[in-house]
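Hello forum,

I keep getting stuck at the same step: I have a sequence, I want structure tokens, and every attempt I make locally crashes halfway through. Rather than fight my setup again tonight, could one of you with a working pipeline run this one for me? It's a single chain of 980 residues.
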Amino acid sequence: MLEYDTSFIERQFPVSKLSKESYKERKAGSNQTLTGLGKWWGRKPLILVRATILGLLLPNSNDPKKDRKIFLKLLSMDDNGLQLRKNKTIPIKILFQHASDKEKRELFQMEEGKYIPKYKSGIKAVSKSELQNKIYHRMTYDQKLVYCMRPEEMIQINDADWVEINSHLNTSASSIQELVAQLGEKRFGHTPKIGDCFSGGGSIPFEASRLGADVYASDLNPFAGLLTWSSLNILSKNDKEIEELNKFLNEVYDEVSKQVDQWGIEKNEHGWRAKYYLYCNETTCPDCNTKVPLIPNLVVSEGYKVVVKLILDEENSAYDLDVINNATKEEIQEGKNSGTVKNNALICPRCEQTTPITVLRRDKKYNGSTEYGLRKWEKDEFTSRPKDVFKERLYAIKYIDKYPERSWDEVYKKPAPATDSTYGKVYYVKPSDLDLKRESIVLELLSKRFTSWARKGFLPVSMIEDGEETLRLSRERGWKYWHQLFHPRQLLINGLFLEKANQLANNNEKKVLSLLAINGLANRNSKLMIWNYGYDKSEQTFANQALNTLFNFPVRTLSSIYSCWKFVLRNKNFSTQSTIELRDARTISTENDIWITDPPYADAVNYHELSEFFLAWDNGLKDIFPKWYMDSKRVLAVRGTGETFNGSMVEIYSNLAKNMSENGMQVVMFTHQDVSVWADLTYILWASGLRVTSAWNIATETESGGLKNGNYVKGTVLLVLRKQKSEETAYLDELYPEVEEEVKRQIDSMKDLDDKEDPNFTDADYLLAAYAASLKVLTSYKNIEDINVNYELSKGPSTGEESAIERIINEAIKIAYDYSTPSGFDSFIWKTLISEERFYIKGLDFEKDNIYKLSAYQEIARGFGVKEYTQLLGNKKANQTRLKTAKEFDMKGITINDKFGNSSLRNVLAALFQSIKSEDTIKGLNWLKNEVPDYWNQRSTILEFLKFIITLGHYEHMSNWEEEAHYARLLVELVKNDGV
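Reply #2:
Ran it on my machine without issues. Output:
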């Protein structure tokens, strides 16, 4: 029987598999579906969005394991789906490792009495294919992901699976879109309406629309509106329509290329074409009055062995820069260590004096505030003046002596990116007089067009509004207008692209595409790009979430920006019923069945400021969308923490609750797991008239299931919400027993659902269950007599005062850890241990499960309330974190008057050390009898510790415990048989 009063996601969610799939999608980088449209900070993975929507729509039955099986089928994450997703060949070495003895005998060659990973002669292709499928089938989920496409790339679920899906759900669908419509009809009486009021990069509206839902998307920011509109109205097109759009981009590029060739600004007298121009800032040393180029290091290209050398021109008190090709290893190493800028200070190579950059800028402090000394550039300026503190100079050019006759489109369709050697010989040269003359031509060409192009919107001449991120631009360089973040060459080429696009675009889709393309160019061709000398290429402007001023930077030419202008459109060909608005979330009046939001909660990313970098180029939006504005609406942007932020969030989520159907649901995504952040969010949602029904954590940012070596896991928490309909009032002291019961119920249900062969939940998930359980209980009441929500929301972010909600959440965490006894440990004795002993035993349990993340230890330390735990760690390195063994402890700390040093467990470890050192377990027994207080009454606890340590010897990856496990086995018998 299907139950529509709750959703699948409110009972269970396969977080482990979704974490792995989310990471796989993240790892795809620029090959992700939406990243090609443009830069956005923190897009959520499409698989996470898809799973969330299906989890909200699917009902529960009296067979939760079957419910999960159907859910995984719909996501192509079951065995059949993974088999269909397989699109890569497993290398023969990997096949050999997984092959059975029989398969090795039948298929692989033998040399010198051993089978080797090489097929016997005459093995048919069909046999090789069968082996591929067999090996793939027996691989773990993590291993399979290496050889398959992402779920979003799947075209369709097979017919046999649809039979099983429809049978279980009582539907008649043959596509995911039909199923979503039918599930919406059963739950809401119509195709589901899904809304997102923080649409950002468009992940949620895009995937909701692709699943067949009716979509409402809004954002305060017009750049977010552009990306969202493009995801729904361009990526939904069929292949023929996309081909037409690509043709338009090629035509624009060709027209620009013709014009640049006529100008002769990128070819030299030998016919070589420039690929990169390298520029640096130059300043005057205040101590010796010498002009010094500001370069962090003197390496130009490590791969091509190119460095620059500083040559003093004493007559002019300046430095020349000579380009040295075929540099030796010693010269390259010297170049890395010989920059003129270190730790934000000028190091003059002539007088060897160090001058802070702030001194060069003439910054001054008055009464605690700083007055910044750089001259502010005027609106019509696009290059520095001779007397400015920082001036820009060209110091090297990367030329290539020929290019293929093929079109650029043909070149970039190669299976692998072509290297420079494909095109011709590479030359790094010092700018010649003719090169400098071409620089003058660029300035002249731009000067003639500057006013006209600015008026037509082809140049980003709007003023930079001061903010937390943008203020540095005027402080560090004097730039006050967005076009000043670009070199004249960049302005000339980018402006030319917009001029030609404006002439050739004959519909709104092409106009939008030209804006997306110019945004791509701006991101990859500004003065804020790092020159990566190790890989001989430039990085993007937003290599991180900031606008970073640099002392040296590359400028790309036509030959190196083709792939930026002609970006890849990964269309999915779907029909969309969508509404996209620029609107403050507090004023939305459109009702939806489901709201899924990823709010800027306590987020340090200044989306509104960073997006203005792109909006400055997007003047054409006013013609394409007459109802849209061009302002980023900084004043209305929701950001930060504290009373104002909390008030704004309450207004927004109260409005969403108001504009949600009675049986509707919400999911709020956020990435913070600090208890105080959870508490604040609880107050916000509670005050908004919403109640928590479940919570799940998906590792979307870093390591997941061994797919990546890194450090801390940064997860996305999904809070599932419904309308608050209770009128009950509770007292705080009455809630603790209820929270305890809910924590236990939640953990029990997760354990019952877990697959013992392929575990889905970790300790972090059980911990999150405690958070969720406490929030479910708290928000199930209209009021709690002891809590003043308005007061809690009005408090500042750093009062240091623990709120009532925080106390309940912390208590829930302790309950969860008390209840989650490590496997093989007596549950009664577990409850009698001190916090430090629990931390240590739980850490050993992590090691059994191959968990070596520092973040895991940090989490359990917080859960058990252990503040000083680092001295218990034998290794603190990323992904190698583990506890000290008895041998590593030696006898250190045994006499220290702290909790762990005096504990029974510490004495057990000391007894093991004594036994190992002397090779005599009697000495270990004597230690226990003499040093453990109340030894006779503590024997059962001592035995439990020893038995647990014995189990460590069963794990190959814990060979460092081998001796301890051996002596623990001997010591157990002595303690067990010890008499008075």
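The mean pLDDT is 88. If your local run keeps crashing, start a new thread with the error log.
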